[in-house]
Design a protein that fits this description.
By secondary structure, this protein is α+β, with helices and mostly antiparallel strands. Helix content is 44%, strand content 14%. The protein binds zinc ion (ZN).
């Protein structure tokens, strides 16, 4: 598929109010393209982290001052790391999140509210000493795992991985 064709596909998907097609249709390890039916990108990332021996809470509701409530996709409570896997369309990814031309009366305010909520969540988490990792659904699973690992303190990472290693061999 040429670059022009891919852009046309994404444009049409936007107009229907659907997620855009991935930029590179040939990429196979993209979390969005690679997922099985009914498997969301955050589920794919959770499974990969779990296989590596990481333990976390999913969809844990965190409350902060100012009545800010945040529900990250993956939470490492003791290490204060919050991971979000953001859909390219709903969270307005710089690559795929171009706002739709039609239905703006509905989509534009909704998308803006999503972006504002993301900023509020990031600020509340950072103010409380949390490390925030935001992953786009178009990122490869390898990149997503690497970014989560980079956010986790090394000493804990090593012991967790060692446990996983023992179990598998
Ligand atoms: Zn994207």
């Amino acid at each position: 598929m040429s670059k022009g064709d891919a852009e046309e596909v994404r444009k049409k998907a936007h107009e229907r109010g659907l997620y855009p097609a991935p930029l590179n249709a040939g990429r196979s390890r993209n979390m969005q393209a690679n997922r099985r039916k009914d498997t969301k990108p955050e589920t794919v990332l959770r499974s990969a982290l779990h296989r590596l021996g990481y333990r976390y809470r999913k969809d844990l509701l965190l409350r902060f001052s100012g009545q800010v409530r945040v529900r990250p996709d993956i939470v490492f409570t003791a290490r204060k790391v919050a991971v979000f896997v953001d859909g390219c369309f709903w969270h307005v990814c710089p690559q795929h999140g171009r706002q739709p031309n039609t239905n703006e009366w509905y989509w534009t305010p909704k998308l803006r509210r999503n972006m504002e909520r993301d900023v509020r969540a990031n600020t509340a988490l950072a103010d409380a000493g949390w490390h925030v990792v935001r992953i786009w659904e178009h990122e490869t699973l390898e990149d997503a795992v690497a970014r989560v690992q980079a956010a986790l303190p090394r000493s804990n990472t090593r012991s967790t991985l060692a446990k996983s290693h023992d179990k598998n061999h």
